[in-house]
Structures are given as C-alpha cells and as structure tokens.
C-alpha cells in the first residue's frame, strides 16, 4: 500500500502521511465487522455460504446453475420461464456471425465466379456443335427442375431480403417502403416454403437412381472434374460434381425444410429454444445452399457452352455429351438414341422424340 | 431526462395477478396476448417467490438489435416502443428477448404471427398521444397524461414499482436496508430465509431467537 502511494505522491509529504493514516483507519473500521460475522457463526448458525440471499434468488431466475421453470396463470409455451437463457446466444449468432459471415460468403462466391469467368472463360464444346443431339431430360424432368429452381430462387431472394434488408435496403428505400417489401417477403416465404418440400420430394424420386455414386466418380474427383486444365473427364449421366450437388440439395434441403416447418407453424408447442435452434439450422443451411446453387447456375449458364440446352430443350448436343458425360453418351449412341437436329426441331416434345429416334433406328436410318 | 424502469420486489409480490388483469383491461390487448405475467418459482416449497414480468425496457434492447425491419425505438423517457405499421411479425424479437415480452396474436391460417404486441410502459406508440389510432394499436398512453403504468400504480403490496430508475432504485435500496440486515449477516440462501410468517420458525430469519 505504502509503495503504491509513494508512486503518486513524494514520500514524506503531508498528503502521503494523511493517506496512509486514513487507509489504516479504514482497515481498523473493517475489523469489528469481521469479528461480528465470526461471533454469529459461533452461535451455531450456518456458515455464511451466501452473503446476499437475494443474489441466490436472482441466480436461480437467471438460470445460471439450473433450469428454473416457475408456474404462472398465463397459459402459453415457456410462459413459466423467467429468463430465456439462449436468447442472447441467438442474438449474437444472428448479428455477429450470420449477417457478416454469411454476407461475405455470398459476396465472396460472387466475386470468385466473376474472377473464374475472367480467367477460365466460357468452356466451349471442343469439337464444336455437332449435327446430332441426344435426348437428355424428359418434359416432366425439366418441369420439376424448373419447379424447384423457381421456388428456390424465390425463397432465396425473399430470405435474403429479410436477412440483409436492414443494413442494405433500409438506407435505400426507407423504413416504410422496406416494411412493405419485407412483409411481402415474409408472407411469400411462408407461403412458398412448404411447396419446396413437395418439389424436393419430386426431385428426389425422379433423380435419385442416376445420382447414386458409381465407378469412375472417384477418378473424376481426383482429376478435379476437368476444371483445371483442358482435358475433359468422362462420367455417367451425372458427374461426380452433379451427384454431390444433388445429395447436398437433398440433405441440406431437408434440414432447411424441417427447420422451416418448425419456424412457420408456431402451434405445435415448440418453445423459443427450438425456434432459435431451427433458425440457426435454417440460416446456415440456406446460406450454404445458395452458395452452391450460385456455382450451379454459373456452370449451367455462362460457364459452359451447351450445358443449359438439356434443361431448356430437353436435348443436348452429341459432342457436348461425349465431352462431359462420355460413358452415358457412348452408351446412348450405341443404342442409336442420337437424332438429327432437324428431327429435334420438328418435334418439341422429347417423349415423342425418343420414340421417334427408336422408329428411325428400326427403319434402319 | 428520466429513464423509466420496472422493478418487482419478490419479497412483496403475493401473486395476486392484479397487474396482469389491470394491464389487459387498460390496454385492451389482443386475444391470447398477455403483456404482463406473474411467475412463481419454487411454488409450494421453501423459497417460494413470485415475480411480475413484462417488457423491462432494456437500455440496449436485444429485440431492437435483431429486428429485420428496425421497428423499435427508445423514447426520451427510456421506454422501448415499436411501430406496428412497420412490424412484419417475424418473431425474431421473441427469440432474442430474455423476458419473453413480445407476444404475437394469432393471425390467419395455421396461427401465423400477427403484429407483435408488448408492454409499452403505458406510453402508447408512435401515433399522436391518446389518438384513437394509438389506442387501437397500443392501448392507453398514461405517461402522456402524467400517470405511471397501471400495473404498478395499482399493485396492492407495492411490489411492482415503475418510474424513473433513480427513484425506483432509491425506494428499493431503502427497503433492503430497513428489511433487517439480519438475513444478510446470516448469509443464508433465500430458500431458507423469508420475511413472511414462516410455517416453521427454525432457521428462518424472521423468527425471533
């Protein structure tokens, strides 16, 4: 103590002496109090485990040591809980992690794709477009693809508006107009959300068989799917990347749907904790999914020549198929499924065209 | 400038639920919504205490932080209010709130959330003071009339205090001092100490030795 004082005040001065004396006095004043506590204990009372009984009460209410649920006349889920212990954790997750990290992740993916496009450019069909095509997707397959795609884009946009609207859109539109946008987004998101489950089930049933991993997938992965270098890697109907995206869509999509259903219907007795947890799963899953789908959209559109044809017209170019899905393409060609461009143009429906191809083959053409 | 706060004294609250009823009546809150509730812990056991809880008008309110449409604002009196015209009923404030204050009336099919409703400290909303719009959306605005929230004003044991935080804490501090320092000196948990008449005098601080 004395040394502490001597730092601030020169030793031997009047101020230092007075300070030292007052400290000594303070210490003496504390002594009887200690003695009192000790004498109380002697009387056979419990030792002073808790100095302030109220502290114990507030600790119980705060639920630091144990979950304290009270009783109340107000009916409702969690109405007997005084302190929602996980609310603050959820707030920190949303404000300090989800919004900044999620935002930078999506922005980073966008920048990465732009950079990738500038470096790699559009992947052309090396042999050029051929004069024959292969039927790739039936109209039903295309229908459910665009069904889930349009729902996904809608849900992603409305979800992102709710997540990033406050920092990004309120400065532009103002609170009143943004409230209208956000309200419409929330209602639309809730309305379309359950449809995503339907689409997910349809997509799973239709595409699961072709997405089971096969021989050759490992070598596709080891060779980086042909992203690096100029060589194309042969694959089946779906390549390893597409299969992985499919399984991610199914697994992460299921998490998103399940957590979404917990959030959307607050009538099954789920409390705040469940909803907070569901929100965390929903948000992480959705950000992950959007990032991957951004890559999917990139490859499907500007990233690769001939990739979108299969999903838009139902047919893909024979050369494109040979370069990207060689196992499947050579099989199809051997079976004589390849048809001329004119035949494709004559019939828009791929189902009739597939039978047409068979007829042409049978006719020996 | 005042900073309005609630304080509920668990040693005084007798779980009469008059604050809940008064609030519901004064503010004509939507069906299924209770802005205030009384919670009893250790009901029927030693250390039974009741607390009346509603929006605590946090200085740094988590609800306002997480709101995706930024509909919360703090008045000059330190009361946390929200704008129902901007609220979209997402429920995030309810997840973040430590006290379970935000409530949602059921609105439409599958009990989807309507506009959030919570305690306004009887201070209405952003509309003109005591206008019919304000009353319809937020209930009464007693603060504008120079009155305090009805729940606290009519609390029969004065367990629930409402008003400027300086005043409230001064009242509570005096109570603590007057309320026998004996409990403090003995250093027993609230579960073994009571200021009310005990069933069994032994071990209770209010019992005369």
TrEMBL record, chain B:
The keyword Iron applies. It holds the Pfam family Fer4_11. NCBIfam families: FDH3_beta. This is Formate dehydrogenase FDH3 subunit beta. It comes from the Bacteria. Keywords: 4Fe-4S, Electron transport, Iron, Iron-sulfur, Metal-binding, Transport. Residues 4-34, 78-107 form the 4Fe-4S ferredoxin-type domain. One of its GO terms (molecular function) is 4 iron, 4 sulfur cluster binding. InterPro entries: 4Fe4S_Fe-S-bd, 4Fe4S_Fe_S_CS, 7Fe_ferredoxin, ET_IronSulfur_Cluster-Binding. CDD domains: DMSOR_beta_like. Gene3D superfamilies: 3.30.70.20. Its cofactor is [4Fe-4S] cluster. Coiled coil: none annotated. Transmembrane segments: none annotated. The keyword Zinc-finger does not apply.
